[in-house]
Amino acid sequence: MSHNNYDELFHRHSHNPILTPEEWPYPANSVFNAGAARVGDETVLLVRVEDRRGISHLTVARSRDGRSNWHIDPSPTIMPWPDSYPEEIWGIEDPRITYLPELDQWAITYTAYSSGGPMVSLAVTKDFKTFHRLGPVMPPEDKDAALFPVRFQGRWAMLHRPVPSFPTHGAHIWISFSPDLKHWGDHRILLPARRGAWWDANKIGLSPPPLHTDEGWLMLYHGVRQTPSGSIYRLGLALLDLKDPTIVLRRSDEWVFGPQEPYEKEGDVDDVVFPCGWVLAGDDELLLYYGAADKCIALATGSLKKILRYLKLCPMGCSP
User: Is residue 5 part of a domain?
Assistant: First the structure.
């Protein structure tokens, strides 16, 4: 769809970036790509922190309003543990958080950076203080994974992004199913990367976990546009069927959020907006937490009702 007077769906917080390495309680090169959850009366961010070696770990930051007065754990919350989990030898990255009511636990999918490449691992927690690792669930190269909060016909479902050996095949968003969160199968492409000149051609990946709405599962994803001066990471939307998440109901043709401000355009990796978490505040306001230029964390807000209205005007199914 196209708009002559485009009305932005997401609005940047006036005090962005909301978290930076300079305010971290211990030395850090960058803080970015945080998973998000509403736990009791607090918003919890599980932040990817890259140390000065280049190895990432995860640290919790908490806020009552989800916007300001963040209380950061004084030391790393979850460190890589290669002695027991060798797939974490080069760090743990990009967590995504899903509450599983059936288990009364938060499930965290994250990228374990192994010597054989990045792979999807899973951990669970009840309090974001102690964590139980379930280990790797997808072989390399695979990342950008998140769980749905419910089972479908008795099975858990996960979105993820494997990368093929032949880059010309494209990197697409896949869906897989499991009876026990450990053994996964029925793998299939859910949302294909487009071809040619599209903003999301050749390489896409999931952003936050899918969000349950009355209209379907709301999915925000990133597309990577290759240009002569480098990559540009932008965001688009899709809507999945509530009962069968393998069915794509709608997909936006246009990107809806992209790097614009200096803190998004200049950093360790320029021209990147990369959300790993969002929370619904009240009935309508979405708080979207995103890594900006792989250096800091920023916040954007949007109206869920407005986003769904926009998607209803988008093409049905997957555009070519």
Answer: no
Q: How far is CA 22 from the centre of its chain?
A: 24
- Residue 231 sits in a domain of what CATH number? 2.115.10.20
Token code pair at residue 191: 């949302």
**pLDDT by position in tens, the chain (length 320):** 444 445 799 999 999 999 999 999 999 999 999 999 999 999 999 999 999 999 999 999 999 999 999 999 999 999 999 999 999 999 999 999 999 999 999 999 999 999 999 999 999 999 999 999 999 999 999 999 999 999 999 999 999 999 987 666 789 999 999 999 999 999 999 999 999 999 999 999 999 999 999 999 999 999 999 898 899 999 999 999 999 999 999 999 999 999 999 999 999 999 999 999 999 998 999 999 999 999 999 999 999 999 999 999 998 876 54
Count CB atoms within 10 A of the CB of residue 178. Answer: 18
Type of residue numbered 2: S
Domain enclosing residue 135, as ranges: 10-312
What are the structure tokens assigned to 199, written together? Answer: 């903003």
Residue 82: how many other CB atoms lie within 10 Å = 15
Amino acid at the residue 81: W
**Is position 281 within any domain?**
yes
pTM, full prediction: 0.96
Using DSSP's 3-state secondary structure scheme, residue 262 falls into helix
Counting other chains too, the contacts that 140-144 makes at CB distance below 8 Å and 24 or more residues apart are 140/114, 140/116, 141/117, 142/118, 143/93, 143/94, 143/111, 143/118, 143/119, 143/205, 144/94, 144/111, 144/173, 144/205, 144/206, 144/207
Closest to 184 (Cα-Cα) out of 147, 158, 149, 148 = 158
How many distinct structural domains can be found in the chain? 1
